[in-house]
C-alpha cells in the first residue's frame, strides 16, 4: 500500500464499511489550496471580478471568478499542453494525495479507483480549436491553411474523461472509476458513487476529482443567453453575487479543481492515516420535472436519502452548504426543500458561491471540502453579500455578515442540484473518536 509504513490500529465494528476522508486538495478562485480557500470563504472575501475584455465578448458588466493561480504553474512543463480543466484536476489531486501520504503505484492499486465530475470537459481546448478554425481554415482557397494546423492531440485534450484517465495513469491507480457529466451535480455524484463503491466492497480507496474551466468567450455567450448571469454591482463588482438576497441577479461563472482521497476505515487505520472526516451519506434523485427549473420534491428526496444512509436525523446536521445559485427560482425552491426536510429548526445555511462563483462540475467537491473544513474547525462560512434576505427564504437560518462559531457540530450536508433535474446531497460527519492526529489547519 502507498503511504507511511503501517501502524497497528484496530477497531472492530459491525455493519456497513465506513468511508473516511484522508486527503483534500483544491485550486479555486479563493486560493491555491484548501487552507487559503477556506480562510477566504470564512472571511467572505470574494474572488468575483470584472471579466477581462476577451471573455466579456462585447457584453457589458460581465463577471468571472478565475482560479487564484494558473494551474500550469503548479505542474511540470510536460503538462502545459493539457486542457485547463485537466490541469486544475491534476494540481488538486497532487495536494490531496500528498496530504493522505499516498504514493504512486500502491500495492493494492487494483482496488484504488479514480472518480471525476466535470460539466463540460475540454471547454478551453474546444474554444481554441474553433478560434483557430475560423482564423486559419476559412476563407478563399488562396489564403486558406491546411487542416493539419490542428494539434494531433486535440481530441484527447478535450475529452471529458481526460482528468480521470491522467490521474489514474500518473499514480498507477487501476481500480474501477468513471467520469460523471451531470452539469452542476457532476462532482457531487462522483463523490457519492465513489462512496458507494467502497462501502459496497468494490474498492478500498478512491480519488474523487471535480474540475471545470469554462471561462471562454463561447461559454460566456451561451450562459448569457440563458439570462442567469449576474451583472456587476455598480462600484463593487466583488459583491455582485447575492444568494438568497432579495436583490439577487444571478450567478457568476468560476473555475476550479478539487480532490478528495476516500478510504475504507480499515485501510486508513491499517496504515495509520489521519482521518479528516467520515463521508457518511449520499442521496441522489431526478426531478422528472423540467430541463432547467428545479423541484422541491426532487431536492428533498436527495437530502432525505443522504440523511438515511448516514443514519442521522435532521437535527443532527449543524451546517448546510446550499447549492444557492443566486437565481430567484433556484434559491426559493431550495429554501422550500430544506424547510420540508428540516422543519422550522434547520441547520445553519450559507452559499459559498457568493465568493467563489458557480464552479459547475467542480462545485460539488469544492463545496463539500468547505463544509468538511467547517465541521473540523467549528467555523461556518457566511453567505456573503446577504444584505436583504428574501422573505420567501425566511425558513432558512442564513449565516449573514460574518462567520459563525459552531463548536461541536456533529455533521454537515452539501447540496448540488443540476439542470436536467439531477440532485445530489452528501453528508459528512466527525471522524470516529480519537482518530484525529492533529488539529485542522
Write the layout of secondary structure elements.
Elements lengths: L18 E9 L6 H10 L5 E2 L2 H4 L6 E2 L19 H17 L11 E7 L4 H15 L16 H5 L3 H10 L7 E2 L5 H14 L5 E8 L4 H9 L30 E9 H6 L6 E10 L9 H15 L6 E5 L6 H15 L5 E3 L2 H4 L6 H15 L1 E2 L16 E2 L5 E2 L5 E8 L3 E8 L12
Parallel strand pairs: 4-5, 4-6, 9-10, 9-14, 10-12
Antiparallel strand pairs: 1-7, 1-8, 2-3, 6-7, 8-15, 11-13, 14-15
Helix pairs in contact: 1-13, 3-6, 7-13, 10-11
Mean pLDDT: 91
Classification by helices and strands: alpha/beta
The name of the CATH topology is Peroxisomal Thiolase, Chain A, domain 1
H and E string: EHEHEHEHHHEHEHEHEHEHEHHEEEEE
Range of strand content: 15-25%
Looking across the biggest beta sheet, what order are the strands in?
Answer: 5-4-6-7-1-8-15-14-9-10-12
State the separation between the terminal residues, measured CA to CA: 26 Å
How would a textbook summarize the main sheet? 11 strands, mixed
Overall form? globular
Helix content: 25-40%
Number of domain units: 1
Amino acid at each position: 500500500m502507498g503511504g507511511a509504513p503501517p501502524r497497528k490500529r484496530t477497531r472492530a465494528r459491525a455493519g456497513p464499511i465506513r468511508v473516511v476522508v484522508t486527503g483534500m486538495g483544491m485550486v479555486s478562485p479563493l486560493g491555491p489550496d484548501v487552507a487559503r480557500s477556506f480562510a477566504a470563504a470564512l472571511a467572505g472575501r470574494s474572488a468575483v471580478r470584472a471579466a477581462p475584455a476577451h471573455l466579456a465578448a462585447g457584453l457589458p458588466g460581465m463577471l468571472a471568478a478565475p482560479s487564484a493561480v494558473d494551474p500550469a504553474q503548479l505542474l511540470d512543463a510536460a503538462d502545459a499542453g493539457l486542457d485547463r480543466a485537466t490541469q486544475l484536476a491534476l494540481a488538486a489531486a497532487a495536494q490531496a494525495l500528498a496530504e493522505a501520504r499516498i504514493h504512486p503505484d500502491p500495492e493494492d492499486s487494483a482496488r484504488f479507483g479514480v472518480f471525476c465530475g466535470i460539466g463540460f470537459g475540454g471547454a478551453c481546448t474546444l474554444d481554441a480549436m474553433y478560434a483557430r478554425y475560423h482564423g486559419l481554415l476559412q476563407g478563399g482557397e488562396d489564403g486558406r491553411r491546411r487542416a493539419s494546423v490542428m494539434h494531433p492531440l486535440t481530441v484527447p485534450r478535450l475529452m471529458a474523461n481526460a482528468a480521470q484517465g491522467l490521474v489514474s495513469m500518473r499514480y498507477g491507480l487501476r481500480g474501477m472509476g468513471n467520469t460523471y457529466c451531470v452539469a452542476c451535480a457532476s462532482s457531487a455524484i462522483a463523490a457519492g458513487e465513489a462512496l458507494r463503491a467502497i462501502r459496497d466492497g468494490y474498492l478500498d480507496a478512491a480519488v474523487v476529482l471535480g474540475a471545470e474551466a469554462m471561462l471562454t468567450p463561447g461559454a460566456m455567450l451561451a450562459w448569457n443567453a440563458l439570462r442567469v448571469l449576474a451583472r456587476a454591482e455598480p462600484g463593487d463588482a466583488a459583491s455582485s453575487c447575492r444568494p438568497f438576497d432579495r436583490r439577487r441577479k444571478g450567478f457568476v461563472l468560476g473555475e476550479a479543481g478539487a480532490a478528495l482521497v476516500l478510504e475504507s476505515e480499515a485501510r486508513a487505520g491499517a496504515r495509520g492515516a489521519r482521518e479528516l472526516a467520515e463521508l457518511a451519506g449520499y442521496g441522489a434523485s431526478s426531478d422528472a420535472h423540467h430541463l432547467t427549473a428545479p423541484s422541491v420534491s426532487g431536492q428533498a428526496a436527495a437530502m432525505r436519502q443522504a440523511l438515511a444512509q448516514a443514519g442521522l436525523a435532521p437535527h443532527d446536521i449543524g451546517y448546510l452548504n446550499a447549492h444557492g445559485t443566486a437565481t430567484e427560482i433556484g434559491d426559493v425552491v431550495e429554501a422550500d426543500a430544506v424547510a420540508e426536510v428540516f422543519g422550522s429548526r434547520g441547520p445553519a445555511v450559507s452559499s459559498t458561491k457568493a465568493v467563489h462563483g458557480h464552479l459547475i462540475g467542480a462545485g460539488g467537491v469544492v463545496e463539500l471540502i468547505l463544509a468538511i473544513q467547517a465541521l473540523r474547525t467549528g467555523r461556518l462560512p457566511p453567505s456573503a453579500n446577504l444584505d436583504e434576505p428574501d422573505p420567501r427564504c425566511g425558513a432558512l437560518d442564513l449565516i449573514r455578515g460574518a462567520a459563525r462559531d459552531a463548536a461541536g457540530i456533529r455533521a454537515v450536508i452539501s447540496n448540488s442540484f443540476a439542470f436536467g433535474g439531477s440532485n445530489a446531497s452528501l453528508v459528512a460527519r466527525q471522524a470516529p473518536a480519537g482518530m484525529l492526529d492533529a488539529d485542522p489547519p
